[in-house]
Each structure stands twice: as C-alpha cells, then as structure tokens.
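Key result, reporting period 2: structure in, sequence out.
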C-alpha cells in the first residue's frame, strides 16, 4: 500500500516505512521524524529538480501550469524507473508513506504523482 502525508502530519505506526521524497532535507525536522519502528528513508532523487520547483514557485509571474509541471516531473522520473520499481515491490509487501513538506490536502504536490507511478508499477 502507498500512502502520502506531509512531514508536518503526526507520525503514526500505520505509516509503515516513511520515505521523504524531496531534493533538500525538510528543515527543521530531525531524521527521527522519518522513523516509525526504525523504518525511514530519504530519497532525494525522487523529488523534483530545483529548476522545476523554481518554475512552479514563480508560476504567477510566468504562467507555468500544473500540466507543465506534471509533464516535466514525469520526464525527470524516467531515469528513476528502478527506484520506482523497488518502491512498488516494497509497497506490495507492506505500507510505505511518501512525505513532503506541502500540506496533504494540496493536490499540487509531486508525491501524489509519484504515488501514481508506484501504483502503476505495482500493476505491471
């Protein structure tokens, strides 16, 4: 099973393995925040590039759209197919929770796109 949460959300045993998927460490959180029963991981390569994040943050000035973000993030993740497949295998054995700093209710976060990629890999 694949879940998503904000790293700001409470840590719960039902999170299973908590995986931070951001290029930069989510300050001010300690690495302890990742762990539930000793399980936690940081996979910065599964976060969007700095250039993509910068374009998204400046979207009001540039007109950059969510559809453009999705296309670019998807392209960036083409080189991460092995990592995505490994997460799919792990999610078939137990729960993994993808973490980012954005609020969970925000649909414009890469972790939701990554979740879909992992679920598609689980079906393949």
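The corresponding designed sequence is given below.
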């Amino acid at each position: 099973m694949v879940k998503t949460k904000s790293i700001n959300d409470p840590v719960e045993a039902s999170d299973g393995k908590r995986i931070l998927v951001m290029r930069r460490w989510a300050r001010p959180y300690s690495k302890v925040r990742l762990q539930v029963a000793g399980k936690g991981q940081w996979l910065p390569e599964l976060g969007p590039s700095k250039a993509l994040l910068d374009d998204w943050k400046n979207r009001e000035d540039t007109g950059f759209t969510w559809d453009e973000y999705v296309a670019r993030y998807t392209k960036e993740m083409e080189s991460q197919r092995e990592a995505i497949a490994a997460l799919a295998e792990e999610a078939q054995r137990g729960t993994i929770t993808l973490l980012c700093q954005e609020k969970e209710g925000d649909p414009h976060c890469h972790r939701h796109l990554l979740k879909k990629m992992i679920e598609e890999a689980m079906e393949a």
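The first strand starts at residue 2 and ends at 6. The two ends are 15 Å apart (CA to CA). This case is discussed further under Risks and Mitigation.
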